[in-house]
Specification:
Helix content is 40%, strand content 13%. It is an alpha/beta fold. Helix 6 runs parallel beside helix 13. The longest helix is centred in the last third of the chain and has 24 residues.
Length: 477
């Protein structure tokens, strides 16, 4: 495939409003079913929620644990006047617990780069899911030398880029991309270089242009890899990860992986589990693939992970994430983090400790739940004329809409999305939002993380598309 060059102009340093979050606001205004922004509408596991509440009310780890084991009858007896027991509400009981006047550390500042107990839990989490040759050794995931707790993955990316880049440096971004990536580059006055992944309808696969990646890697400080991929649902296979690592090594380019969908891998994917490409000597960095021992070590020093609680544990509003980076970057990264946000909220860190301890059965159920929703929504969309390469990971369907009779007349995806929003009552994201200068106009992104009743209602509304043709739909513009 031929190498393409895309020039970057001054507008690339202009920080723009999030189109995805704008579509959510419009969904609320028009009372539409929101399949635009990628947040679930169900709560996080009770383990995390209860830990936050008990932490806030207990105030210290010791009192939190004591409070968790208290009987409600004992708390009522000691804190609520007996004459008020019959009419006492949950609010009354919580207020009484909170007003005991005990020492409270959990509502205060904690270590800026993360509570030691939480960083220890993160390290143990990686040892549990990526043991041995899969890469997560204590040498690489040391709580003190490698892990920084952040205010979500959004902050993670900006502090990573600020740590490894200086204004004017270039970073390599794959199209279609999450809008965060070029926006963060603009905030830091970095130059985004783009390489386009293309959908091969014949092979039913999104394909990388390695010739183009190789050419652009020569001038780029880092490459961002979202795997599993938003918005396409692609899971990068072992051979693709090997080629990307070879290119990073050849050009001394950092590999930043956005792993927030790591457990959302479905039937039809190239492998059953997520891979840490910069560390995995079992399937990626193998001698058979041409990686020497020295290159394995060098790749570890070029590999940076960002992750968060948001998607896996259905708590996008908690805003807690982490970065795992080589130790030579940690001090500077933590300094940037300290000056930008100081810390992630202490009570949420307490809850995160419990979430990271949840048994593996939770992840299996979560994957099954999202696969069921994927199967339902994609099948129903295809009945209406939408088309896509099956998303085998994450929780998005990146649909071609040109063969939907009602939408054929719209030249721009934003016009098609606004029609779906206002006339049909379903919010989506126009696909050109995921491309540099909106140069690809064939796609609309749907999110299937909502619960089945909301997906069913969305499909019911979308069936109204059959009442329109291209001409009548355009008249509503």
């Amino acid at each position: 495939m031929a190498t393409t060059q895309k020039m970057v102009d001054d507008d690339d340093f202009k920080v723009k409003e999030s189109v995805i979050r704008k579509m959510t606001r419009l969904a609320i205004h028009h009372n539409a079913v929101n399949l635009s922004q990628g947040f679930p509408n169900e709560g996080p596991p009770s383990e995390g929620v209860c830990e936050v509440i008990c932490g806030l009310l207990g105030g210290t780890d010791e009192d939190k644990n004591e409070l968790k084991d208290k009987k409600v009858s004992d708390l009522m007896g000691s804190l609520i006047d007996p004459s008020q027991h019959q009419n006492a509400t949950l609010y009354d009981l919580l207020s009484a617990i909170n007003e005991r006047g005990r020492l409270n550390e959990i509502s205060q500042y904690s270590v800026p780069f993360g509570r030691p107990a939480l960083r220890e839990k993160i390290a143990s989490y990686y040892e549990r899911f990526y043991p041995g040759t899969k890469g997560a050794t204590r040498q690489r995931v040391d709580p003190d030398r490698n892990i920084t707790v952040t205010l979500g993955a959004t902050e993670s990316l900006v502090i990573i880029l600020r740590t490894i880049c200086k204004p004017g440096d270039s970073i390599l971004i794959m199209e279609p991309f999450h809008e965060l990536y070029p926006s963060q580059a603009a905030v830091l006055y970095l130059k985004p270089e783009f390489t386009e992944m293309k959908e091969n309808i014949t092979t039913n696969k999104w394909e990388l242009d390695f010739t183009d990646i190789e050419a652009k890697a020569k001038i780029c400080k880092a490459m961002i890899l979202c795997n599993p991929h938003n918005p396409t649902g692609k899971l990068f296979d072992t051979e693709e990860l090997q080629q990307l690592c070879h290119i990073c090594l050849k050009h001394n380019m950092y590999l930043i992986t956005d792993d927030i969908y790591e457990h959302m891998i479905y039937s039809g994917a190239t492998q059953e589990k997520h891979i840490l490409p910069g560390w995995d000597t079992e399937s990626v960095l193998t001698s058979a693939a041409g990686f020497s021992d020295d290159e394995v070590q060098k790749m570890a020093n070029l590999y940076i992970i960002m992750n968060s609680l948001s998607k896996t544990w259905s708590c996008t509003g908690w805003r807690l994430g982490w970065v795992i980076c080589p130790s030579h970057l940690t001090e500077n990264l933590r300094a940037v983090h300290d000056q930008m946000v100081l810390q992630a909220p202490t009570p949420i860190q307490v809850g995160a400790q419990a979430l990271l301890d949840i048994p593996k059965e939770y992840y299996l159920k979560m994957t099954s739940k999202y696969q069921e929703r994927r199967d339902f929504l994609v099948q129903e969309l295809e009945k209406l004329g939408f088309e896509c390469t099956q998303p085998n990971s994450a929780y998005y369907a990146f649909m071609r809409f040109r063969n939907v009779p009602a939408l054929k007349g719209f030249s721009k995806p934003i016009d098609a999305s606004i029609f779906l929003l206002k006339e049909i009552g379903v919010a989506t994201v126009p696909g050109d939002n995921f491309y540099y200068n909106g140069h690809n106009t064939d796609y609309i992104r749907f999110c299937f993380c909502r619960q089945m009743p909301q997906l069913q209602e969305a499909v019911k509304r979308l069936q109204k598309l059959q009442e329109y043709n291209a001409e009548t739909a355009l008249k509503q513009k």
